Automatic annotation (TrEMBL):
Binding site residues for UDP-N-acetyl-alpha-D-muramoyl-L-alanyl-D-glutamate: S23, T145, T146, S172, R180
Pathway of action: Cell wall biogenesis; peptidoglycan biosynthesis
Protein's organism: Intestinibaculum porci
Protein name from the UniProt record: UDP-N-acetylmuramyl-tripeptide synthetase
Keyword Cell division: yes
Amino acid sequence: MKRVNELFDVKEDFKIISLHSDSRYVGKDSVFFCIEGLTTDGHRYADDAVFQGAKVIVHSKPLKRKYPGVLYIQVKDVLDELNRVANIFYDYPSYKMTVIGITGTSGKTVVALTIRDVLNHYLKMGYIGTNDAQYGSTVIQSSYTTPETIFLHRTLNEMVKSDVKGVTIEVSSHGLALKRVDSIDFDIAVFTNIHEEHLDFHGTMENLMRAKMKLFELVNEKGFVILNADEVRFNHFLAQNAKIKAHRLTYGIDHKADIMAKNVRVFIDHTEFDLFIKDEVYHVNVPLLGRFNVSNTLATLTVLMALEMPIEQIVSAIDYISPVDGRMELLETHTPFHVIVDFCQYVHAYGQVFRFAKSVIKPNSRIIAIIGVPSKKEINKRNRIAKIANKYCDQVILTQEDDRDDNMLDSCEAMQDLLKETVSVIVTDRRVAIYQAIEMACNEDLILILGKGHEQFMKSSVGNQPYPGDKYIALKAVEEIFGGGKEDEI
Ligand SMILES: CC(=O)N[C@H]1[C@@H](OP(=O)(O)OP(=O)(O)OC[C@H]2O[C@@H](n3ccc(=O)[nH]c3=O)[C@H](O)[C@@H]2O)O[C@H](CO)[C@@H](O)[C@@H]1O[C@H](C)C(=O)N[C@@H](C)C(=O)N[C@H](CCC(=O)O)C(=O)O
């Protein structure tokens, strides 16, 4: 709780219990911020907010009605004001902990969770990212990868009260463009990679890069920005456009960097490489799969370097790295064939996973891919995934990936028409598709279950529907068909 004159430059003095930007959740004695959105305008809900108990309305446009006893504060930019006020209301939580932001198209979750897991061995850590916030045994669901400002500050404040000393935050381009993290004091910002994504929202690659660039400008002058030397286009863009206050460190495989990996060798269950760090070389073995996860590992190690860990400690911290749920996760099936579950959200990720699969399977073994078919709205994505699947997959099972508005069978058939160089079948029920793959797999085949990763829900137009998850279903199928599944995991 705060007094209103602690939050705003006003002479009135009454208590404020909470902050809100959605009128549907406004509580008594609160502040409501009217935000102009993409579909509606928060100014339309100012009266609703007052009805629900708001005592202060922060707005930028003129309002039709004003009620006595309510303080109306007009500002130029409501999101800027929201950031300023949320910081004060929650006692500047990000200044009381080490805040590490991770941005990039892919790898945000793997890097954020890996840094969290490794650092947890030294200090109490929290994580905010793909649909939840976690610290200790607390898990708070959120609707976004990067939650909105009030949620962020409230959660960071709870973490501080629970003695959390550091936090990793996944920072999406939406989050940056919509000013969700503008008032967070970042100590370290990490860049993974950039590919075409969310151009429906950003419009152009330049706008997308500009949105991501902002994170690096938000890092304080004592902090570090950690860049991927192999992402030449983004680094060039930063050099031309960014005003960065912080120190820089780089990691890379193909381009010279502060921390480098060479002689990368990928295996079905781990990856090995030579780690070049401050003139020393160490042979390293990590349980993360694929060349792209070498970059993610390097990003993690560079964060440890920024935190001034001695080299020996950085190298031994590699032992704390473990696979991330639903991200290139090799299931323990004890079957003669292998099963990998991956989230695989973007087209380039399909290419990476298929190339990895091709490089690790035996010459006469098959890649059997279960692919969730993109909807009618994403025809371009559908075409591009089909093209890559034609090149690498031996068999494809086309199935659902969330319940979309269009007809599932039509979408599957349209995609099947594109799969001319590989054998495919349509099984619209995702559970049946997984069972079918496991029934047909033989020695050393590799089943790839793609598109849902860790998710235990199916999105639908009426909200999320329960779904046990790809891993659960696959292990259950193995147990039922082969009797060899690990019961404690299913
Ligand atoms: C594109 C985008 O991010 N849109 C966000 C944006 O929506 P919007 O501009 O359409 O908002 P709006 O519905 O017009 O509402 C405007 C304001 O009126 C308020 N309102 C609205 C209705 C009402 O009855 N009362 C009320 O007060 C809203 O709370 C809001 O403050 O502002 C809304 C409220 O803040 C967000 O809920 C909404 O997120 C949408 C739902 C969303 O799905 N966002 C996704 C794309 C997103 O953010 N994804 C990223 C990236 C994920 C990734 O990397 O893949 C993420 O970080 O999760």
